[in-house]
Structures are given as C-alpha cells and as structure tokens.
C-alpha cells in the first residue's frame, strides 16, 4: 500500500512537471522571433500574426514573413511575428505585438479579419492591415489587401485550353465562396479564350470538395475527372488539393497547382501553378506605410500589374510556345484588353461577348 | 457506365480503408472494456511516422510498420493512464487527441526544416494489380494493397474475437472483469494488450492515408477520420464485421457524392455534402436497431473492489 501511495505521488509529480514543461515549450514556441538586425537602423516596426497554419505553412503565412524579412533587409525596419495556435489567439497576439512597439500590424489570412477589426478599434493610434479580406466599412487605421486571383487563374486556364488533347479539363474547388469563385471563373474564362483561339469546344467540369482538408475527397473527385476524360485539372482546394495532385500522378495526367509553385509535389505532372505572391504585396504596402503614405480606410487589390500574381517560370511540361503565348495573355490583361471575370455574372457576360 | 461503377467501388474502398483500420482498433479496445477516444490522435501519429519513415528509408512497408509501432506507443500512454492509474478514459482519450497532432507537427517541423508538410515519399504502398498496363474500367479498381489488408484484418479479428479462447477472454473482460478475474484471467494484461493493439491499428490507418492515398504527411491529412471510425464502431455494434461494414457504408456515401457531383444535372454541392450523414442516419434508424456497448466499457477495473 505504501508503495502504491509513493508511486501515485511520484506520478502526480511527474505529470505536473511534464505539464509545466508543456507550458514552457509552448511559451517558447510562441515567443516572438528575434527581429533582424540590419546596418541601416530604422525605428519603424512592422509585425504580423499568422493564422493557424503557422509560419512555415508553405503557403501565404510563410510568403508574408519572407516579404517582411526582405523589407527588413532593404530598409532596416524592425520586423517580427507571432504564430497563432488557434483562432482565439488572434486578438491577444495582435495586442501583444501592439504592446511590443510595432507601428504596423498585419493579420495574415481572412480568418484574422474580425480580430484585426477588434484590435484596430481599441488601438486607434496603430496601423493595421489584413491579407485576403475587404471590409464593408474599413476603419481609418485598417487596410484590406486583396488579390485578383482571377488573373493568374485565367492564365493557367489558357495554358490548360492550349494543352488539352481530349478537349475536356477540370476544376476542383475547396468550399464554394466569393474568393474561390475568382479562381473558378477566371480559369473557365481562360479555357474558353483558348478554345476560341483554337476554334474548338472545350468542356470544363467543375466540382467542389466542400472541404479544404479532405485529401481523399480531392483525390476521388480528380480521379473521376481523369476517368471521364479530362486531361488537365486545376485545383483551388488547399489540403484537399494534395489529393488532386496525387490523382494526377496516378493517372499520368496534368494538374495545375495553386498559390505557390507546386511542381515539387509531382515534377512530371504539374503543368504550371497559379501564383499569389503574398509576401510581395505585404512588403509593398508596408513600404508605403513607412514612407508616410496614408494607406488606411481602403482595400488595395493586387494583380498582374503590381506583379503580385503570375504563373510559375518553370514550363518544361508545356507544349512548345504555350508559355510565351500565355505571357502575352498576361500583358493583355495588364493593358486592360482582356477583362477577366471573377464572378458567375461577369463570366456569363464574358462568354457571350 | 461500367467505368462509373468501377470508379464508385474504387472510391468507396479508398475512402473507407483508413477508417476501417482505425475502427477495428476501436472495436478491440472497447471489447476489452477500455473506451478509446484517442484514435484520432493515434492516427495522426501513425500518419506522420508512416510518411516520415517511408521518406527516409525509401520503404513504404517499413514506414507502415513504424506507423503501427508509433501508434502502439502512444496507445501505451492511454493504457497506462486508464488501466494502471484508473484515470477517466474519456479525458485520457481527449488528451491523446491533443498530444497526437501536436507531437506530429512538432517533429515534422524539426525534421523537415520547419515545414508543416513532409516531403513526398518516393515509394508508395503498391497497387493491387501493379502500376502499369491496366487500362479502361479496370483501372478504377486498381486499389492500394492496404485496402485488401484492411479486409484481411477485419476477417482475422472477427475469427480471433469469436472463434478463439483468447477472444472469449477479451470479451469477458469487457463484459464482466470481476468474473473474468475470478476465473484466473489477468484483466490488466488483456486490457493493456488490447489498447496497444488498437493503437497499432489506428497507426496503420493513419499510414494508409499518408503512404497510399497521398504520399506525404500534411497537417490536415487526418482531420476527423478517427471520430468517424469511432462512430463506425458504435454503428457496427462493437463487432469487427459491423464496424468494417459501417466504414464501407461511409465510403460508399462519399463516393456517391463524388459521382453525383459536378455532372450535367446540377445538384447543389452543399446538399450533396450532407448526403453521407443523411444516409447514415436513415440506415441507423431503419436497419441497425439497438446497439449495446460492452458492459464494462469505460469503467476502470479495480481488483477486489465491491
């Protein structure tokens, strides 16, 4: 009996210790990173909070942080970040960064939108910005940053239209929303533009996984599209997209990546990727703010013209000449000759033209 | 038409396999009287270990085995807390669910330069008919070997639980541990072994996701499969064949939404997304009837307690 008691006490102590250890490591993990030191000193300080994806998410959080690091190297501004482990951390993290002396605070991802609004309301003297969100009413000290995702989507749609041999291509979306509509309709319009140019009909199948995290569903949908005869599939489906790329690999067909160059996932099957350079936009907006420009109270959109979107440079999988033709399409979008639709209504208007 | 049917079967089998491994794990643990809510966490650990070991060794089966071992080790934690320390099994299970993804992500960042995704493995679990030379409708049936393995496990577990002396011991420990103890069965030992076995199976389930369906670990690779597997255990009345069947049903419902979606006749995808759950509820009401858990499930056993 005595042994048992001693054992119980020992275990309790061990558990308390391990709990304390957990607490400690969590603190450490969440600790703001050391700001980069630079020769050029500047008292301007820019900070960002990640959404729950974390700083090395191989997506927009990582890209945003890379943008801030470049900013620091070029201007000597103080930069740092806090990773958010859960959505309820957003406001706290913004407050912590505000207390640490940051003058411009970024929320990365539309999930942070409400938290940014709340923090901006209680700290009217600080400047805030949020990626991938536009408010109906933007306060004076908040900037929304949006991307015209329809533009690179149009370009990869054009690539798909030029590449398809079966005259059937596909699109796999995550959860249907205004944001993903930009990808879908931009892509469809690009495919139809190419079809018109080639004087043939190309069918686009569209299906949503109703999830950004269900890789098996993404794979199932893409497998169905390939089995139905599609030979190029574009995805805007986050984690479900991993399955889409895998389906392409198994079927030996083409797939188009999204947000960043996804060629490393399947070098022989990724035709191209529609890029969204979050870091570049974050850097540019931060620089404007540093120069004392008034950026608050509005939503800024970034696209081809600002060189914040595009397609990947690697094009060994594309047919001869398609890459160059696509870059020309990009120029036409920039000059306004092609107006890329981003919603269903705009798409229908585009088609009937 | 034929290719649609084979596609439907192929998707069903692909979808249900990780669930089936995990659900079989749930069955064996519950049958011995230990509720295992931590399956999701054990699957995540398995998914991570499988993909990582598979990547570094270049061997898919090595990764698969390692995933089972890792799942079993996490399960040992649950067994220690809930059997030796007689902790609340629900709380211990939830703790495992929190630890699993945390540890997986932490190690992933450590091993892959801070990335939350592992690098794709070069060798995946092989396909049933090999990787080349299959065309047409048959191609859709060219499922991963893990699919077959899950079925084999279900059959073996059924035989083990219902046709062997050991199976009888396990079931009696889950129904009436005190009586089993009087008959000279070591309740603690059996429960430990069953919980560890459930962890191994959950680890296999995770690895069948990250070594067969997709070739890498991602933070969202396991998102909810463990809980669906638990539902399948209850749906299948705590039997291996029932739980396996329930997983196939979930898989078939998902396959149906995939096949019906995006076609020429447009069903709103939100409605389609509800379909698996609606089908489940209807079948539950119409065909399954009352299901009763093993009597001692969830209760810690204390030797000599009255």
TrEMBL record, chain A:
Q: What is its main location?
A: membrane
* Location(s) in or outside the cell: Cell membrane
- The signal peptide here is 1-20
Please report the stretch or stretches of sequence annotated as the ABC transporter substrate-binding protein PnrA-like domain: 46-344
CDD domains, alphabetically?
Answer: PBP1_PrnA-like
The record's SUPFAM superfamilies line, in alphabetical order, gives:
Periplasmic binding protein-like I
Q: What is this protein called?
A: Nucleoside-binding protein
GO cellular component labels:
plasma membrane
Q: Which family does it belong to?
A: Belongs to the BMP lipoprotein family.
Question: What residue spans carry the Basic and acidic residues bias annotation?
Answer: 25-43
TrEMBL record, chain B:
A Pfam match: BPD_transp_2
Q: Which domain of life is it from?
A: Bacteria
The UniProt entry lists membrane topology as: Multi-pass membrane protein
Q: Which InterPro entries match?
A: ABC_transp_permease
- GO cellular component terms? plasma membrane
Q: What GO molecular-function term can you cite, just one? A: transmembrane transporter activity
Name where it's found.
Cell membrane
Residues crossing the lipid bilayer are 60-81, 93-112, 145-162, 192-214, 220-236, 243-265, 271-289
Query: Which keywords fit this entry according to its UniProt record?
Result: Cell membrane, Membrane, Transmembrane, Transmembrane helix
Question: What is the name listed in the Swiss-Prot or TrEMBL entry for this protein?
Answer: Nucleoside ABC transporter membrane protein
**Record organism:** Faecalicatena orotica
């Amino acid at each position: 009996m005595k042994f048992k008691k001693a054992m119980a006490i020992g275990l309790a102590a061990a558990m308390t210790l391990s709990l304390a250890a957990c607490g400690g490591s969590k603190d450490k993990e969440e600790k703001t990173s050391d700001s980069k030191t630079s020769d050029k000193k500047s008292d301007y300080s820019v900070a960002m909070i990640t959404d729950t994806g974390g700083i090395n998410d191989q997506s927009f959080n990582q890209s945003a942080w890379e943008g801030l690091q470049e900013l620091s190297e070029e201007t000597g501004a103080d930069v740092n970040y806090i990773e958010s482990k859960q959505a309820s951390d957003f406001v706290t993290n913004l407050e912590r960064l505000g207390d640490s002396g940051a003058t411009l605070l970024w929320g990365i991802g539309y999930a942070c939108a409400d938290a940014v609004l709340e923090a901006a309301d209680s700290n009217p003297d600080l400047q805030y910005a949020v990626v991938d969100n536009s408010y109906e009413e933007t306060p004076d000290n908040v900037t929304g940053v949006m991307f015209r995702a329809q533009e690179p989507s149009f370009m990869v749609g054009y690539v798909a239209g030029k590449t398809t041999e079966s005259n059937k291509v596909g699109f796999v979306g995550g959860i249907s929303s205004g944001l993903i509509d930009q990808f879908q309709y931009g892509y469809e319009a690009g495919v139809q533009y190419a079809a018109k140019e080639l004087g043939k009909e190309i069918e686009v199948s569209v299906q949503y996984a109703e999830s950004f995290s269900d890789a098996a569903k993404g794979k199932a949908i893409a497998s169905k599209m390939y089995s139905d005869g599609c030979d190029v599939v574009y995805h805007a489906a986050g984690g479900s997209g991993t399955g889409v790329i895998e389906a392409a690999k198994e079927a030996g067909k083409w797939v188009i990546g999204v947000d960043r160059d996804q060629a490393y996932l399947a070098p022989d099957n990724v035709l191209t990727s529609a890029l969204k350079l979050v870091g570049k936009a974050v850097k540019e907006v931060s620089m404007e703010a540093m120069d004392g420009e008034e950026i608050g109270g509005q939503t800024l959109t970034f696209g081809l013209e600002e060189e914040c979107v595009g397609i990947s440079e690697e094009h060994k999988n594309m047919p001869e000449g398609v890459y160059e033709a696509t870059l020309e399409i990009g120029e036409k979008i920039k000059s306004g000759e092609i107006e890329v639709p981003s919603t269903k209504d705009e798409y229908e208007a585009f088609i009937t033209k | 038409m034929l290719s649609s049917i084979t596609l439907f079967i192929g998707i069903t089998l692909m979808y249900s396999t990780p669930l089936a491994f995990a659900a079989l794990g749930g069955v064996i643990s519950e049958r011995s009287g230990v509720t295992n809510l931590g399956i999701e966490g054990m699957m995540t650990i398995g998914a991570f270990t499988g993909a990582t070991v598979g990547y570094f060794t270049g061997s898919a089966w090595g990764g698969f085995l390692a995933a089972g071992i890792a799942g079993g080790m996490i399960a040992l934690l649950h067994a220690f807390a809930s059997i030796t320390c007689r902790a609340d099994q629900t709380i211990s299970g939830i703790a495992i669910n929190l630890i699993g993804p945390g540890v997986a992500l932490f190690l992933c960042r450590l091993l892959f330069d801070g990335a939350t995704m592992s690098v794709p493995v070069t060798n995946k679990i092989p396909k049933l008919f090999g990787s080349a030379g299959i065309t047409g409708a048959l191609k859709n049936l060219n499922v991963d070997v893990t699919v077959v393995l899950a079925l084999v496990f279900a059959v073996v577990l059924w035989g083990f639980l219902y046709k062997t002396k050991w199976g009888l011991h396990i079931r009696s420990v889950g129904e009436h541990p005190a009586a089993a103890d009087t008959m000279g069965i070591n309740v603690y030992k059996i429960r430990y072994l069953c919980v560890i076995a459930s962890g191994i199976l959950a680890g296999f389930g995770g690895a069948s996701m990250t070594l067969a369906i997709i070739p890498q670990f991602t933070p969202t690779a396991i998102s909810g499969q463990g809980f669906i597997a638990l539902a399948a255990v209850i749906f299948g009345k705590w039997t291996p064949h029932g739980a396996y069947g329930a997983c196939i049903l979930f898989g078939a419902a998902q396959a149906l939404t995939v096949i019906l979606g995006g076609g020429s006749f447009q069903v709103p995808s939100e409605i389609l997304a509800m379909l698996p759950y609606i089908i489940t509820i209807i079948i539950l009401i119409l065909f399954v009837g009352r299901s009763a858990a093993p009597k001692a499930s969830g209760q810690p056993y204390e030797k000599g307690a009255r």
